[in-house]
Amino acid sequence: MGNLVSFMHVSLDGFTARLNGEMDWIRMDEAIFDLAVARTEKSDTALYGRNTHEIMKAYWPTAADNPRVSRHDLSHSKWYNQVNKIVVSKTMRGQSFEKTTIISEHVAASIEALKKRTVGEIIMFGSPALTGSLMQENLIDEYWIFINPVILGQGISLYSKNLRELRLHLTEHIPFANGVVCLHYTQN
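RESULT FIELD:
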């Protein structure tokens, strides 16, 4: 059975993006990229909400074609093109993309079935709305929360107003030289 693993950058005040979706405040470095590569190597399925899927689809399929491609972009582009992608979206119903399945209804039951038939990890980058709904259903097995040293004051919150209590276990914390701290939690 596959674990559903959430990777999310957040501000100190719990926002995943500015009000219009901008993520220009996120601090990245090679060590964070290396951690992401290590996790993608354990996954055979990527799970996205519609917005994150559109961002990923616009960049990663051809990122490796750039003559000045970074080591990270080369690796992630290769992974993205091979991995099975699941997109949760009502508005994309009936659309078709290579190696992509669209889930438009019965989301919780579909994710439960996906976890049962998946061998490797199911990794979810970003997708704050989807993350919030899956948190409510208690379907996320691991959280990798990258806390960035910034207070945005407003934006798109990671935490739903209707979120019920979840008890988590801190399995590790990783400080990065750029000021980001990664907290890795698992379900109790």
